[in-house]
């Protein structure tokens, strides 16, 4: 059997995570039995710094970048990643933030987010979604080293840096963010951590740049800056500083209102998915949500995702005092959202909004607790359990056919690079870098009918045909029969159809 690097990389990460978990548990046991052993580690701070730079600063980002490339080649990046690919392609070719996948509308009708569009120059140099996958892996991978430097800076030593880095890297959120679809929001984690490090280091210019870039990741980011303003307000007695904090809170509120208005205007005339559909139990509108603050804790199970997040960080953020406020304000929309949704449960890239501020609060919580004898073994044990629980990077079997690894590239070879296209949602990330593309999703897609165009090629899978809703399948096939599409490729369950006029 030929060696498959796309399987070897995620499998290697699983072994790395499992080994890291075992090492943390062994270290926890050693320090519990021999507390003075940690003093020897303090004497090798230069060695610990070099290990952090090599392992967290260089090796981990490289492995994460390879992992995202492996996901890309294994057709695991799914629909959202294809939307990002189409958005980046259009931004690179002068079509702004529009995407044919979402009915030719501006992406601002979905979210106030456009970080991926800033990568347009890279897309001009390398017109492939692989460039977005690499950016995702490198950015998320760098967050572990940023956590190390932040812990070092806040607490004053490599011991604290490693504690914070291990807690961050072992947390299920870190694993989920790396494994998630390509999205603007994932850049919120590295941007916040590097920005927080710049601020703690007195580098205000770099901190401001990271803050501005953070605003491109999601419309909820003004809540972060409102939280930072509230944090500053509680931390200072200086009149000018308090006025500046009040100004930041007011500006953040105005910015949030403006961004929500931009989304509302961009959606005018479109009857697709309501952006407030995640808040149906609270009334499904901004006013109704604000009038139901008890929705944060009712039913009580809605608090479990937040409690699990804190548990994975050894509850250190609870010792951080006012430093926890930015994370809490960012969590509020997710806490108010309907229970059972991925947004409320902080699953996948939905974990990214609060994770960076929680890691920052972690560092300050550790600083306030100081060097207590029991603390290192406990935190290492928490990290060890986290690594072991997160040691899964291969997609569960059955999500898509393994035969696609060989048949997929041959099928895509029958599709001209600029041909208007309908394709299976799992192939959208590969084929999304063109002006006209629509996705064949397995469930109802509110964006398919609006802005529908006549394709020159269609790539579908029997896998999709079996799993999709019957009405969706019949709508697609009847349209293709009427237009006289002919089969130009079939291998396994992959089929490419062509409009005879385009041949």
Round the Cα radius of gyration to an integer and report it: 24 Å
Order of helices and strands: HHHHEEHHHHHHHHHHHHHHHEHEEHHEE
Strand order of the largest sheet: 4-3-5-7-6
- Strand elements, count: 7
Largest sheet: 5 strands, mixed
Q: What portion of the residues fall into strands of 2 or more residues?
A: 5-15%
- Mean pLDDT across all residues, rounded? 89
Structural class: mainly alpha
Instruction: State the share of residues found in helices, binned by percent.
Output: 55-70%
How many alpha or pi helices?
A: 22
* Silhouette: globular
- Extract low-pLDDT stretches: none
Q: In whole angstroms, how far apart are the ends?
A: 38 Å
Structure in words:
With 503 residues, the chain is mainly alpha-helical. The longest helix has 29 residues, at 5-33. 48% of the residues are buried. The protein is globular and about 75 Å long. The protein has helices at residues 5-33, 37-42, 45-73, 78-92, 120-125, 130-155, 158-170, 172-179, 188-200, 204-214, 221-235, 239-266, 286-290, 304-311, 325-336, 342-345, 352-369, 375-389, 404-412, 428-431, 462-467, 470-482, and strands at 98-99, 105-106, 421-424, 437-440, 457-461, 486-491, 494-498. It is built from 22 helices and seven strands. The mean pLDDT is 89. The strands form two sheets. A five-stranded mixed sheet has the order 4-3-5-7-6. The two termini are 38 Å apart. Helix 11 packs antiparallel against helix 15 and helix 15 runs antiparallel to helix 17 (352-369).
